[in-house]
Amino acid sequence: MTATTTPNLTDDSLKGHRFEGFPVGYYDLHPDVSVNYNLNRFCTGEIDMIDAIRSVGPKIRDYRDLTRELLALGEAALKRGERLQSAYFLRSAQFYMFADDPRKQDTRRQFLQLIREHYGFADTGHFEVPYETGALSAYRWAPPVDSRGAVVLFGGFDSYVEEMFPMQRYLADAGYDVVSFDGPGQGVSLEDHGLPLTPDWHEPIGAVLDHFGLDDVTIVGMSMGGCLAVRAAAYEPRVRRVVCNDCATDCIDITFRQMTDAQHKELSALLEVDADHVIDGVFRRAMKKSLVVEWGVQQGMLVSGTDSPSAWLHSLAPYRTDDVSPLLEQDVLLLGGSEDHFVPRHQFYDQIGTLTNARSVTARLFTRHEQAHEHCQVGNSGLQFRVIKDWLEELRERDA
Question: How far, in Å, CA of 169 to CA of 153, rounded?
Fold first, then answer.
């Protein structure tokens, strides 16, 4: 397939440019790798926010500092009438608010209101898809008369699907009928309807396809959604094309990657003997030393509906793809970052190796040269979107 690249520029000279209408550049804003990632996370949306983010980076030492500074940026942007920028700042602040933070619910509701208004979903296009005891929050961009096909988008471990509105609009502008949704354990479906994460992702996918009457669809799973996409495609025949960004083949392995080698070995041994009280102690100590571990454990218990670190760790066991990958007979596009700080690079290659019956497998590893080397191509969103669009177009030409 034809390769898609950014302009022929060197690494740092890409910064400050735009590709497909989106800012390009991954910046060093904070010494903590996870905090740095999330400060970059919204800087390559549709608007350039890097100068504002850079101004507060030196003031951030912990999550309390981070939420304070980002809330202040959000309020200032709203006073200037910059509603989308305010929405992203509020989402960045809310991201690091734990469940017991009294500011969390008001902040997330304001984020939702602002971003829905900006993208035109304030009055129409938002749906509540019935699912089990609650509902799945979903959005549909008005499908074109001559749709080039249906695409369904969803996130992963920490997402609000509203963060995917730029991709949704990009693909809709390219002629696709695009639906996005929060599944169980995600965004509004978790916070408002109390639905915990499930490895049986074909069930929420099926509910969404039923609700909108969709068939012959492409699904795009972001972050942990790459794992969920493979699991859904294994059992939902209406899914004909699969995009995984990233390739999350083993979520326990991803969790351990955020810890030291000694902690990894200790926890692996403790899991084998079900020493849950000791596992909880190991996690508590690790949480005091690492911001990303502290956040990950808190978020993990929230999305899984568990009440202890050990219970959450046990709940991760089915979130893997090696058991279902041979069942896929679809066309599959695998995307990964060469320096992804969350997902070990070997999982990208592991996923390729287990898709033994897929109709086709296309894999694209993004690099620092393209400013797309990090998790989910934060640093060059436009390149990620272009690669997905080009892949869909080439499949259309093949099948025609």
Answer: 11
User: What is the H or E stretch that residue 362 is in?
Assistant: strand 360-366
Give bridge partners of residue 243 from the DSSP assignment.
220, 333
pLDDT single digits (tens) 248-258: 999 999 998 88
User: Would you state the structure tokens that stand for residue 252, as one six-digit string?
Assistant: 């326990």
First to last CA, the chain: 16
Half-sphere exposure (CA, 13 Å, Cβ side) for 251?
25
Give per-residue pLDDT as tens, 72-93.
Answer: 999 999 999 999 999 999 998 9
pTM of the model: 0.93
Region(s) of the chain under CATH 3.40.50.1820: 124-250+319-399
3-state secondary structure 299-351: HHHHHHCCCCHHHHHHHCCCCECCCCHHHCCCEEEEEEECCCCCCCCHHHHHH
Rounded CA gap, 157 and 171, in Å?
Answer: 23
Is 124-250+319-399 assigned to CATH 3.90.1110.10? no
